[in-house]
Amino acid sequence: MMNKIGFVGAGKMGVSLGHYLKNNGLCVTGFYDSVSEAARFASELTETVHFANLNALLEACEVVFVTVPDGVIAAVWDSCRQYDIRGKYFFHCSGALGSDVFSGSEEAGVQACSVHPVCAVGSQNDCDVFFGKFFVGEGDETGLKLLKSMLERTNNPFRMIRNADKAKYHAAAVVSSNLFCALAQMGEDLLHECGFDPGAAHELLSPLMLGNMDNIAEKGCVPALTGPVERNDAGTVAKHLSVLEHRDREVYRLLTLRLIDMAQQKHRDRDYTNLLKMLEK
Predict the structure, then answer these.
(1) pLDDT (tens digit, 9 = 90+) per residue, 234-261?
(2) pLDDT at 2
């Protein structure tokens, strides 16, 4: 018999993930949220049950996904512990927090895990975003076994991680996604200063960004590296530094130092000493 799955928290992650699991044949029973309208929307979208209270969901489901903001997970867990939850599975979807946020789970008789989908969920109706994406998890062995069987059904690749590495793992994901947004905005802002309107700046740089990301995805970071640092063109880098100010200059300087490390891996016979000295002043 398939485990019945319930979601506590009907935001973007909870609704979209619940919808995705249900579309892949898993037994999603329904949703509870402190904002009743959010749970009602989720249940209507997924054709599942809208639970009026937390205990009703806990009684109906063997597997509970706590899909609330990170800062609320512990409080929701404390509320769950007030009821009979022995024998159940508890998962949360925080990238930065580990399964230990379910404090006292062993004493409560539950299997506790964290599972993080490596993708950005844009809305409550974004279930297709999970297709083919990696999920990263850690926690109790039995819970992980169930989790892996669920993801085998959805055909999602799964990787395990140590609890102690969760914050560093999430930092890696943020660097590879959110911080790219900051760099893209920095580039567009520099073009604004050159007289480009926002639309034109975005249109000009988007193909460059997309082409670079395609190269990185296909070849890897070091083989995809091009530009003045890779060529050891200290004169061009000096010109860039001369026109950048304050935080933009520091961002450029620090990232260029990392690029030198990458360039040295690509061209082990080149001497980047002069470029390093200029950047470390």
Answers:
(1) 999 999 999 999 999 999 999 999 999 9
(2) 75
Write the secondary structure of the chain as one string of H (helix), E (strand) and C (coil): CCCCEEEECCCHHHHHHHHHHHHCCCCEEEEECCCHHHHHHHHHHHCCEECCCHHHHHHHCCEEEECCCHHHHHHHHHHHCCCCCCCCEEEECCCCCCHHHCCCHHHHCCEEEEEEECCCCCCCCCHHHHCCCCEEEEECHHHHHHHHHHHHHHCCCEEECCHHHHHHHHHHHHHCCHHHHHHHHHHHHHHHHCCCCHHHHHHHHHHHHHHHHHHHHHHCHHHHCCCCCCCCCHHHHHHHHHHCCHHHHHHHHHHHHHHHHHHHHHCCCCCCHHHHHHHCC
Q: What is the pTM of this model?
A: 0.90
Whether 102 contacts 126, CB under 8 Å: no
129-165 pLDDT, tens digit per residue, is 999 999 999 999 999 999 999 999 999 999 999 999 9
